Amino acid sequence: MSIDGIKAIVFDLDGTLIASSIDFRIMRDRIISFLRSHGIPEEMLDANDTVTNNLGRFRSFMKVRGQASTLEEMEPAIDSLLIEVELENVERSSQLKGAEEALETIKEDGFLIGLLTRGSRTYTMKALMSSGLDYRHFDVIVCRDDFPASDAKPNSRAMENVANSLGLSPRECLMLGDHPIDMLCARNAGSTFVGVLSGWSDDSTWKEKGCGNVIDSVASLPAWLLERKLKS
User: Fold this and answer.
1) What are phi and psi of 189, to 5 degrees?
2) Which segments of the chain are extended strands (E)?
């Protein structure tokens, strides 16, 4: 594939730039417990599914029932619960091998750099600091709580928000991520997507999801970009 027209690289955080310190199993269990205590039907909850999907079904359920105002009232409590789990081990965050060098190379090559995460801003800034990644590498950082909860990945509006903040269109952005929700967010916005094997997804997962651009880790990205530039 050609990267002609790509002006910015947008990175996911956990599993892409840093080794996540978040226990997503605990987060999922606490969210499900919270929703259950607020009368959400058991059939809407799935202990084997992601936090994102459980919350997505919950929000859809509330809107269908005409309880959008109640949902709005509950969102701060949900966000507080998510942040509580995010921060439990944030000091253990560590950057993945080659992350800093890759960001520096990409910046030197003239690309704008964005960070798009479902993490809260409080967590994101602390995780960057704990991992030793300088937040000044990023021209734009968009976190879960910078926009309405419904705008977060996998909603394509998340990528659109990053692109707009960079003064670009989504088609001028390439996203690097470790999870299918990153791919959905990017593709639905019209952005190019590259998957990494350093986090949640392995080769078989990316193949199943139809992701044709897969690299080992962020450390491989500068060489991958250069190879496609030379071919264009």
Assistant:
1) -90, -10
2) 8-11, 18-19, 94-95, 112-116, 140-142, 173-177, 192-196, 214-215
Q: Tokens at residue 57, please?
A: 């079904």
Give whole-number Cα distances, 122 to 30, 60, 78, 118, 145, in Å: 19, 27, 15, 12, 9
Q: What pTM did the predictor assign?
A: 0.89
Assigned token pair, 217: 């880790």
Residues 83 and 136 in one domain: no
- The reply to whether 173 falls in a domain is yes
pLDDT averaged over consecutive 10-residue blocks of the chain (232 residues)? 83 96 91 87 87 85 82 87 95 96 95 96 96 95 92 94 97 96 96 95 93 95 87 66
Domain count, the chain: 2
Are residues 41 and 207 in contact, defined by beta-carbon separation less than 8 angstroms? no
Please report, for the domain that includes residue 143, its CATH number: 3.40.50.1000
Q: Which residue do the tokens 């976190």 mark?
A: 143
Longest dimension (CA), the chain: 57
Give pLDDT, residue 232. 63
Distance CA 125, CA 209 (A): 31
Task: Give the range of the structural domain holding residue 75, as residue numbers without chain letter.
Answer: 24-87
Cis peptide before 154 (omega within 30 of 0): yes
**Strand ranges (E), 135-222:** 140-142, 173-177, 192-196, 214-215
Chain-centroid distance, C-alpha 91: 20
